[in-house]
Amino acid sequence: EGDLSRLRAQLGKESSLSEIALSLYLGDQLKLGEGELKSAGWRRPSILADALEAIIGAVYLDGGFSAAETVVLKLYQDKLQTIDPKVIDKDAKSQLQEYLQGKKIDLPEYNVVQIEGEAHAQSFKVECVIKQLHITTLGEGSSRRIAEQQAALLAMGKITQ
After folding, report:
1. Dihedral sign, Cα of residue 44, residue 87, residue 160, residue 101
2. What CATH number has the domain bearing residue 18?
């Protein structure tokens, strides 16, 4: 994925949209059903993100592309000034891989060393081994992917010490 694709994905994801909606106090303006009111739906990220998307869509339908563009640029102004598309939303494994490739170091190996628990509540331990640097880290998580990410993050920490 290119830098611009990652940037677009980051800006359009639920957490970014809901953050903007919160800054506008959009939740205070929503008309919610009784169930959503009881469960504090006005603070739920998915509802806030959907509400902001609906507003942007309404501006587009009412005023056209130019009006929607103006609103979106105003809403995202702060984020666009502070975001670095080169590092945005890269997970730990991707960052580690790019770092190692840049230094001409062989990619790490990820090995599941332990799985515990029932099928619905498993815990995984995964090691990340970078042979050329003599680094081995151990990550733990509720899925193999989460454990690998943690192990990669720990490996990056050791490399940058």
Report:
1. positive
2. 1.10.1520.10
The two structure tokens encoding residue 134:
């003599």
Q: How far apart are CA 31 and CA 114, in angstroms?
A: 49
List the Cα angle 110/123/93 in 5-degree steps: 30
User: What range does the domain containing 120 cover?
Assistant: 92-159
Q: How far is CA 37 from CA 20, 46, 98, 135, 153, in A?
A: 21, 14, 46, 51, 39
Find the helix packing angle between 14-23 and 3-12, rounded to 10°.
Answer: 50
Q: What are phi and psi of 27, to 5 degrees?
A: -60, -30
Residues 77-128: tens digit of each pLDDT:
988 887 766 656 678 898 899 899 999 999 999 999 999 998 888 999 999 9
The CA distance from 62 to 99, in Å, is 47
Q: Tell me: do 110 and 152 sit in the same domain.
A: yes
